[in-house]
Amino acid sequence: LFLGIEEESEPDVSSMRKMRMASASFRGKIKGHKELEELIASESNAKQAWKEYLKCAEKVGECQRTYAETLRSSQARRRLENLSHISDIATNRCKQLSSAIKDKRQFYETLLTKERIVDTFKRDRVRQDKQLLQLESLRKHRQSLNRNTQDMDSKIEILKNEIDVTKIQMGAIVAEINSAIDSQLKVVYGQYLCEQKLIFNTMAVADSLMELYLRTDDEMYVIQAQTALTEGDASEQAQTIRRASMSSSLLSQTPSEAPPAYTLTSVS
Question: CA separation (Å) from 223 to 88, 211, 250?
């Protein structure tokens, strides 16, 4: 506020908003929100850890293929190559979760930016109230001396207009924060959980199919595992697993040994 301004002007909220928001965001960084900052850091660490895991999984698949070339048994070599192939497809499928993790972090970063803007507006309000008290005190002093207070009246009016603008802008940001927490939080987490469930369910189906492949050496299961991972719809493959499990269960119920022969006992 420039107290030397004599001319009264009507503030334009819409034209001032962008400039004041940028200034408030910059100045608001001097005060942090510890819990929210720690949450953002944890989300960043989770995303980085997920990327590192996928990177290591890719390396494992590469090493598997290299090792398979050294095996004497063609059957064992084929098994390891198939396992490596499905592992690579699964790793690529899991990369889609990285985007959902990033969206969560960016949601909290947006909240933090808005919270810092609110902090700046609160500090502005403290400063404005202090200036208003000083101006009103000075005006009363001039009135007691029967001096002209027209310039002081103008400055007080300008300051009150600035206070009104600050209140409007701070209220708008607070409303945006509340709306984001009430609605956007559900959307962001809903998308993340849906993507996570879809990926992990598909992975579970592919793993089960590869288990059947290792038991039977039937490469039909490898093809089905690949289809489940690439298409994302594992319902048909899940039916295959259930049928195979039922067959395995029936086989396991077959008696492993015949009952003892019946012998007639003599009665004395």
Answer: 14, 13, 25
